[in-house]
Amino acid sequence: MGCLNRNAVEPTSAGMPQIPPTDLAELRDFLVNAGVAFHWVAEDGTILWANSAELEMMGYGAGEYIGHDIAEFYVDQPVIADILARLKNDEKLKDYEARLRCKDGSIRHVAVSSSVYRKDGDFIHSRCVTQDITAQKKAAELQQRLCAIVESSDDAIIAKDLNGVILSWNRGAERIFGYKADEMIGKHISVLAAPDRLDEIPDILDRLRRGERVEHFKTKRRAKDGRILTVSLTVSPLIDPRGGIIGASKVARDITISESQAEALRVANNALSAVNADLEQFVYSASHDLQEPLRMVAAYSEMLTRTFRDKLGPDGAEYLDYVLQGALRMEQLLKDLRAYTLVSTSRQPPVENSDSGVALERALAVLRPAISDSGARITSAALPIVKLQQFRLEQLFQNLISNALRYRGAACPEIRVSAEADGNGWQFAVQDNGIGIDPKYKEQIFELFKRLHSVAEYPGTGMGLAICKRIVERAGGRIWVESEPGRGSTFYFTIPQRT
Ligand code: ADP
Prior knowledge:
Elements lengths: L23 H10 L3 E5 L5 E4 L1 H7 L3 H4 L11 H12 L4 E9 L5 E13 L2 E11 L1 H19 L3 E6 L4 E4 L1 H7 L3 H4 L15 H10 L4 E9 L5 E12 L5 E10 L1 H88 L9 E3 H11 L1 H7 L2 E4 L4 E3 L2 H17 L7 E8 L3 E7 L32 H11 L4 E5 L5 E8 L3
Parallel strand pairs: 12-14
Antiparallel strand pairs: 1-2, 1-5, 3-4, 4-5, 6-7, 6-10, 8-9, 9-10, 11-13, 14-15, 15-17, 16-17
Helix pairs in contact: 9-13, 10-12, 12-13
The structure holds adenosine-5'-diphosphate.
């Protein structure tokens, strides 16, 4: 058989293209090697023949596939039963979707197109074209998943072209801005701009055209009902597979509430600070004004004792002595209270570089009488320059060393002051060999008026450590104690090296 005019494809009388004259070998070669997978199936489902594209797609050799029941390769049995039934009824199948199991166990999504070839009314075979649509299916599933994520997002996710025309609008955008998707798709993005932010939009579009991203840009947008929202925008260029910029995706997060909460917190904090400052000012003034009448009480009770001692008798003198002691103690309390409030008054001198060695010397000079009375031995290592007002450092050393002297044990007080760099500044230690502290009180002793002893046992007001804590915390550091009853105490405090 010769091979004739290959270009001549004349329509048949039924309008179908006519196959050009060709020989059988050529036709067979075409079927076997065509890029499209196809096979023939008998009425009972036996595979009669399959071409190489089909065998390749399924991963089987001809002997492992041809002659087998087609149902063996279908994942869903009702599907192949339906296909065979339809074919038997001479239905023509077009892109009927099914799942086939390949030799390696993988599953392929296919679109089957098939019809029956009959001769003299007999079912000779069905001829099936099997198109592998796995990649499209996976892409569609991925797209579906992405769409679901976009739709379920609380943020507004909007796509727009490079002219700012809105292309997509998710449910988050509907919720935040109040417009439905069909109201916004096709509109210009500037519909959303707050009136005073209109000029931002061309600038953002210019940046996108240059391929730049706009990240966490805080701005104002207007909702459908006219409310002005504070939003945080992240806008990224949308790039096509060839690398061209075709538009932008914009994620807008409504931060109106968190912004207003932050603002409310700021206002409340300011109000609280103002109330605190007033309160401290009040405490300071009251403790200052009470000083005078107290001095009078003390002075007159002393005068009474001196002038009328004989007339008062022993009981009267003793009672007056209590009055005097009470007045003196109250005077000390008021003095400490003033010192405490002064640590945090707003009018603080600027933080300076202070020599802590000098501060220690000055504190020891003030404490000299108590030191010599107790016979204490006080030693110190080389001490650093730190960022804290000199007089605050003196106050710290004075309080801690005076405690170490007062809360001494039977032995002569041994007190050691040292400091070491702690990475972010300095850590000081004031160590004594005194009565020690039960660890369960190691937090409480820094509270205002907290004392572990009566005044008769050890005089004091319970304010020294509270003052120390305030000074240290104001400097950004912390203070703590390590101690055990009877084994001395070490008070530590840190002063960060602020820049
Ligand atoms: P005050 O000494 O006036 O009572 P502080 O605030 O300085 O007030 O101290 C609180 C309490 O902590 C003291 O009453 C005392 O019980 C305990 N304390 C402080 N320093 C020491 C120390 N070095 N050794 C043992 N106990 C101490």
